[in-house]
TrEMBL record:
<feature type="transmembrane region" description="Helical">
    <location>
        <begin position="56"/>
        <end position="78"/>
    </location>
</feature>
<dbReference type="Pfam" id="PF01313">
    <property type="entry name" value="Bac_export_3"/>
</dbReference>
<protein>
    <submittedName>
        <fullName>Flagellar biosynthetic protein FliQ</fullName>
    </submittedName>
</protein>
<keyword id="KW-1003">Cell membrane</keyword>
<keyword id="KW-0282">Flagellum</keyword>
<comment type="similarity">
    <text>Belongs to the FliQ/MopD/SpaQ family.</text>
</comment>
<keyword id="KW-1133">Transmembrane helix</keyword>
<dbReference type="InterPro" id="IPR002191">
    <property type="entry name" value="Bac_export_3"/>
</dbReference>
<keyword id="KW-0969">Cilium</keyword>
<dbReference type="GO" id="GO:0009306">
    <property type="term" value="P:protein secretion"/>
</dbReference>
<keyword id="KW-0812">Transmembrane</keyword>
<keyword id="KW-0966">Cell projection</keyword>
<keyword id="KW-0472">Membrane</keyword>
<dbReference type="GO" id="GO:0005886">
    <property type="term" value="C:plasma membrane"/>
</dbReference>
<feature type="transmembrane region" description="Helical">
    <location>
        <begin position="14"/>
        <end position="36"/>
    </location>
</feature>
Length: 89
């Protein structure tokens, strides 16, 4: 019973970390996608690369800018949850 609680708590914490780490990239992709879609609807320009390229550039820029935050979040998860379980058990 105790092992199940530890497993599910660790899984919950890992999933929450995944959500927190992926939020900046997904938010920027959503905002850029809606903005470009609105621009396409207003100008009647239906070009697939017009949607793909700005999204790709924005995602790469946000990934580069938030890499330190993402790394710190994942390292914190490992140091506080995963490594103590490995060492202790």
């Amino acid at each position: 019973m105790l092992e199940e609680v530890i497993f599910f708590d660790t899984l919950r914490q890992a999933l929450w970390t995944a959500v927190v780490v992926s939020t900046p990239i997904l938010a920027v992709a959503l905002v850029v996608g809606v903005s470009v879609g609105l621009l396409q609807a207003l100008t009647s320009v239906q070009e697939m690369t017009l949607t793909f390229v700005p999204k790709l550039v924005a995602i790469v820029a946000v990934f580069w800018a938030s890499m330190g935050f993402m790394t710190a979040s994942i390292v914190t998860l490992f140091q506080s949850q995963i490594i103590p379980l490995i060492v202790g058990g």
